[in-house]
Write the structure tokens for this entry.
Amino acid sequence: MNNTHPIWWKDAGLCKLNLHLLILLLGSYTCGFNGSVMNSFFGIESFMTDVGNPNPLQQGLLTVQCHHLARLPYQLPPSVVLGQQVWL
């Protein structure tokens, strides 16, 4: 038998794990939303003019930057709390 509490929300380890998983899941949703928004912006001529009419390579780099920057707020705090580096 293990030393976990029979009710999962009263077990400190499982609560910590579920909180970490929730934060990572929310980060994944946010990244998907940001990527979708960035790709839709590339179809708007005024946006393209404002960012200097980037070529497809530059558009891809902009999308990747937004994708990775959106992950930082969701992945760094749990990593520090758990004492691990999480880069998924």
Residues 13-82 form one domain. The chain has a mean pLDDT of 77. The chain has one domain: 13-82. DSSP finds three helices and no strands in the chain.
